[in-house]
Amino acid sequence: MSRKVDPASLMTLCPACLQAFQDARKAFLRRADVHQQTKDVCTYCQSRYGFDYYVQPAAAHRDSIHRKVRTYVPASNH
Questions:
Q1: Partner of 8 for a Cys bridge, out of 32, 54, 61, 65, CB 3.0 to 4.6 A?
Q2: Cβ distance 57 to 27 under 8 Å?
Q3: 3 backbone dihedrals φ, ψ, rounded to 5°
């Protein structure tokens, strides 16, 4: 059985670059470790410091949401 490769990638983003990604709305961002305290050099601008985020293209994230099985339960007629 083959597993689908997760298109998310790990990036360090400073607040300015994080804001740019959020404003563009072309990626889904999720903190890698909400308890991370040590900042690293930003992967994008390489001049400021930030935290680690999983960055997934918005289209790939949207596709994975739509693939989840949803069950429709009609309201009963009372």
A1: 54
A2: yes
A3: -100, 145
